[in-house]
Amino acid sequence: MHTLLDLRGSIPVFIRVTTGDTHDVNILDQIVFQPGAYYVVDRGYLDYCRLHRIHLAGAFFVTRAKSNLDACRIYSRPADKQTGILADQSIALNGYLSRKDYPSHLRRISFRDPDTGKNLVFLPTSSPCRCNICALYKSRWQA
User: Fold this and answer.
1) In whole angstroms, what is the distance from residue 85 CA to residue 71 CA?
2) Model pTM?
3) pLDDT truncated to tens, each residue of the chain (143 aa)?
4) Which CA distances in Å does 122 have to 17, 100, 135?
5) Among 85, 96, 31, which residue's Cα sits nearest to residue 61?
6) Angle at 123 between CA 120 and CA 129, to 5 degrees
7) What backbone phi and psi angles, to 5 degrees, belong to 49?
8) How many CA atoms lie within 13 A of 11 on its CB side?
9) Most C-beta atoms within 10 A of its C-beta, which of 42, 99, 117, 126?
10) Residue 112, exposed/middle/buried by CB under 10 A (0-12, 13-18, 19+)?
11) pLDDT value of residue 55
12) How far is residue 100 from each of residues 24, 44, 93, measured CA to CA in Å?
């Protein structure tokens, strides 16, 4: 089951029940992205072409990076290690196809979760967002 929640009221605005052979990322083709909205998705939805459609719609996304991310650092922002953020960078994708699918810069945020001790890498839209990206991603399980 794929669910899109409006967190202002924890109300589902999109629900799709699919068979187990439907890949998660295909659901992004069925969503009409709203400008200014935040879409928080798991790694199963990581497809640069589809994520770029979210960006072009004027919306924002947060997902986790896969371990084989091939990107180069463009710029590093100051990281507040007291909050668990190890790095906050603007990046460009290196692969020919991935750069073609997502030609804009992304952010790469490295975070050490104080509760679990795990190191996590997030890929949010490269925007001047001042929200806590790590808390936003974690909140997807709270609704």
Assistant:
1) 19
2) 0.83
3) 777 877 677 778 888 888 888 888 888 898 899 898 888 888 888 999 999 999 999 999 989 999 999 999 999 998 888 888 899 999 999 999 999 999 999 999 999 988 888 999 999 987 655 567 777 777 665 54
4) 27, 21, 11
5) 31
6) 110
7) -65, -45
8) 3
9) 126
10) middle
11) 95
12) 22, 20, 9
Question: What's the length of the chain?
Answer: 143
- Token match 């084989």: residue? 68
CA 74 distance to own-chain centroid: 19
Q: What integer pLDDT is reported at residue 102 of this predicted model? A: 96
d(C-alpha 121, C-alpha 56), whole Å? 23
Amino acid at 74: I
Could you tell me if 30 and 15 are in contact, meaning their C-beta atoms sit under 8 angstroms apart? no
